[in-house]
Amino acid sequence: MIEPRFAWRLAQPVTPTTELLDAGSRHGLGSRVVGLLAGRGIASPADLDAFFADPLEALHDPSLLPDAGVFRERIAAARRAGERIFVFGDFDADGLTGLAILVRTLRRLGVDAVPYVPSRLDEGHGLSRKAIAAALEAGARVIVTVDCGTTSLPEIGEARAAGIDVLVTDHHRVPSELPPALAIVNPQRPDSRYPERRLAGSGVAFKLAQLLL
What is the pTM of this model? Predict the structure, then answer.
């Protein structure tokens, strides 16, 4: 039998007040959801209303992410030139979610975006040489990685030598040597000014969608 690594401490249930339940009903929430929110600090009608009011305006500025400006400029240039963008998303849930976010965003902007999901068995995690070959075959001039790429030094060097610009979007730990990508959008970078360093890969993709739209 495998022993658990962590001892989970479950939050105690919170019984919401009548006023909070009334506020929740205005947002179509039942007592169970209101109680869950109350247990997470949203314990007054004002807190609940603020939680659902203009959520995008309350989010951090995506331009605070490192290389966000370079990312936006290269996407804009590809859009103007009609270049194809090859979007490489890791095969796990985080990578697939981020891939969907960025592909839908790029297509909404009129960009020719081609999604690519690597084989777990044949390619493993991270940007692969097989994917670079597929990008070249597809005629892509830009590769955007989702949830990976920060440690893909040889692969990105190969793509660059082939004339492809690589825009890395990632959230994993940053090595001492960065790959030769045109942009590395990763909140874990030491020079990041973004307030939250614990974004998921799909969270980084969402912030870039916010930046582009």
Answer: 0.82
